[in-house]
């Protein structure tokens, strides 16, 4: 397990996926992942595409991992989307937008778990799983 600080935002690949549609494979590939520093990915023993479980005080979710040379050790980037929404709080503190920066998280390997699809996440939110 690794402790990291999550930051979030949109990516250009995600924007293209949104144009195709949130139910598209392209959007899934762009949003159901977390970028980890190379050092954190090596410490976890994960390579690109391997599943990891991201947990915060707000919840947890399984997504694919992607090592990134652009991140410092202890930082992780999680694109906006339903997968990220599972681990970020919903309180806006009067700003109209939840905090998507500086959230403490734990990352661990999830070799025995699958990344949920958009429809599986929605079904879970409805209590159907």
| Low-pLDDT residue intervals, each spanning 5 or more residues | none
| Rg from Cα | 14 Å
Q: And the CATH topology?
A: Barwin-like endoglucanases
The succession of helices and strands, N to C, reads EHHEHEEEHEH
> Could you describe the largest sheet, including whether it forms a barrel?
6 strands, mixed, barrel
Structural class: alpha/beta
Number of domains: 1
**Distance, first to last CA:** 27 Å
What would a concise description of this structure say?
With 129 residues, the chain is of the alpha/beta class.
Structure report:
The protein is α/β, with parallel strands linked by helices. It has a single domain (2-125), classed as Barwin-like endoglucanases (Beta Barrel). 27% of the residues lie in helices and 33% in strands. It has five helices and six strands. Strands 1-5-2-4-3-6 form a six-stranded mixed beta barrel. Strand 3 (51-56) and strand 4 (59-68) form a beta hairpin. The mean pLDDT is 88.
């Amino acid at each position: 397990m690794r402790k990291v600080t999550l930051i979030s935002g949109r990516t250009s690949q995600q924007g293209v996926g949104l144009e195709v549609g949130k139910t598209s494979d392209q959007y899934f590939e762009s949003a159901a992942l977390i970028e980890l520093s190379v050092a954190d990915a090596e410490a976890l023993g994960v390579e690109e595409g391997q599943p990891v479980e991201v947990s915060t005080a707000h919840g947890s979710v399984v997504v694919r991992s992607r090592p990134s040379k652009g991140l410092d050790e202890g930082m992780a980037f999680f694109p906006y989307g339903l997968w990220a929404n599972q681990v970020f709080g919903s309180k806006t503190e009067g700003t109209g937008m939840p905090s998507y920066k500086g959230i403490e998280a734990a990352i661990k390997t999830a070799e025995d778990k699958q990344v949920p699809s958009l429809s599986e996440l929605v079904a879970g939110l409805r209590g159907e799983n």
